[in-house]
Amino acid sequence: MSAPARGAAVPVAPPAPGLTPLLVLRRLAVPAATASRRVLADRGGLVTSVVFFLLVSVVLSALWRAAAGPSGTVVGYTAAELTWYAFAAEAAVCTIDLRLIERIGEDISSGSVAVEMLRPLPVVAVRLAVESGRALGRLVALVVVGSGAAWLLAGPPPDALHGLLALVSLALGVVVNVAAQHVVASAAFRLRDVRATWFLYQKTVFILGGMLLPLEVLPGALRTLALWCPFMAMAYAPARLATGQGTALLLLVQAGWLVVLVAAAAFVFARGQRRLEVVGG
Amino acid sequence: MVLPAERPRPADDVDPATLAIRATGLVKRFGSGPHAVDAVRDLSVSVRQGERVAYIGPNGAGKSTSIKILTGILRPTQGTATVLGFVPWQDRRRLAARTGTLFGQRSQLWFELTPRQSFRMLAAIYGLDRAREQRRVAELGELLDAADLFDAPVRTLSLGQRMRCELAACLLHEPEILFLDEPTIGLDLLAKRRLRELLVELNEAAGTTVFLTSHDVADIEHVAERVVVIDHGRVVYDDDVPTLRRSLLATKLVDVGLGGPAPAIVLDGVREVARDDALLRLSVDTTRTSIRSVLDVVLDRCDVVDISVVDPPLEQVIAEIFAAEQA
Question: Is residue A22 less than 8 Å (CB to CB) from chain B?
Fold first, then answer.
């Protein structure tokens, strides 16, 4: 490190640094990968997540198998497909910190987010990268264990192509969910407590996201509403692909929601930070 | 004492092009109407590149608000400022790439990670390549005597250890200015001393401008070359530390734990400020009588069970500044 002369002329501010979206993504890859590795190295946390996931998935899939009967179907899904549905939908949601909205809200309302504003990348971009990294790290473990358990209970997955699509869809669903939670948590820039928001969000994902039940089970208007909401991209899309139904179009829908929600998160955080700049934290 | 109104401030007579920080007429108003509060009002301050400046004031004086304006977190209601040529609130991210900020009560490390993992993430965010990151982490491990802390989870570190790691995180990208908001708060004496030494070493080795807020008089004495005192959002004193030391920091407090009755201590520049059966507190003007002389007399005449020499609290120093200003 060279020591500039005391009282030396301060360098003139350089032109725009040229941080293209690609360069930002490259810079964010390391935080995401580090967060993923950290989650996988935390054996205790991982075991807790896996046990919780297995417990819920096994119970839920047993209920659906009972509803379908040995040779029957429920809204077009066989008992085996419903088992894969339950495991995939649970994996998509259980990978994410259950209290993520609350945690983001606390960071905003306590002013901790101000420290993050002093970095050369957008606050929301770093947060999305780190939280997605954490969730995707956990997803690897849940997919490995969940696939094994679903296979034992219901036989092999429907087909390799849908299995592959379901994996991509799970990853997309997780990132969509993380982005949506940042949008909701940004309410903390105005409200002091976002716990109620978290509760509402979680229950909406359970029902309209297809985590507890396939969206085809819902009555007409509600089903239509659910299919037009972003929540379907979080659990329903990967779970449907895991049953061997649905097409790659679901991935496109998820990608669309991802773009919309990341843009929305960037917008609401920028607005929130602007408010912080004016009224303080 | 010579007050700023009577002579130029230390940074007033330098070429504006050499200033790392230049703020003029800053006002920050929170709220509106009858409930509006001016946290900063008509604040003007300049800092030369490579200076070590202590920025002090009582609680609520506007110190943190000023730092938040100068780093771009807050947008002033009025006034102008440039930091390294950037308008902070317009170019916060570009400025962030060249400054480091340490808030004593806020962490920038990820608690579930080790400091080394946090540095890896921060290095990527700041665009440092792997080789530069590794070189910097090794340099900082040596400079901060903290290499053995970098692989322990942050949540297991003591406050003093964590602050050294926080400082390393701030310095990773070789900032030209270091903003430090209460960096020694909560640290034990050894950790405080080490942190102060580090800041001076860093400034002397790399020319890093240090802009420090603190409630601890020792931080000012041992780190800063210049002191800016603000109150109610305005600069009320701005001078170099030797001048301040001569005029105000020359006073020390001697606390004597007593085992029995003690006679009055009569020495030039020594004043008894508190006394009970177990404690005698003396205020000593060290320009008139040395601490050593006072200790000799106290140990000779009193039944001493404990003794300590401390700085007067910052509030007292500030009160004396205000008293001198009003006189």
Answer: no
Same domain for B255 and B125 = no
Inter-chain touch B124–A31, beta carbons under 8 Å: yes
Distance from CA of A34 to the nearest CA of B (A): 7
Domain end residue (candidates: B199, B214, B247): B247
Interface confidence (ipTM) of the complex: 0.83
CA dihedral defined by B135, B137, B143, B144, rounded to 10 degrees? 180
Say whether A6 and B96 touch across the interface (CB within 8 A).
no
Chain B residues whose CB is inside 8 A of the A25 CB are none
Judged by CB atoms closer than 8 Å, whether chains meet at B68 and A122 is answered as: no
**Are B45 and B227 contacting, i.e. CB atoms less than 8 angstroms apart?**
no
Beta-strand pair B209-213/B226-231: unpaired
Contact A216, A75 (CB under 8 A): yes
pTM of the model: 0.82
Residue-number span of the structural domain to which B81 is assigned: 4-247
pLDDT in tens, A90-124: 999 999 988 899 889 888 888 888 889 999 999 99
**Which of B223, B247, B271 is the endpoint of a domain?**
B247
Chain B: give the shortest CA distance to residue A67, in Å: 43
* CATH number of the CATH domain containing B89: 3.40.50.300
User: Residue holding tokens 């030797």?
Assistant: B242
Is B326 a member of any domain? Answer: no
Task: Using CB atoms within 10 Å of the CB of residue A24, give its burial: 0 to 12 exposed, 13 to 18 middle, 19+ buried.
Answer: middle
Nearest CA in chain B to A18: B94
Same domain as B256, residue B232: no
In a domain, B76, yes or no: yes
Residue B65 in any domain: the answer is: yes
Nearest to B121 by CA among A39, A33, A116: A33
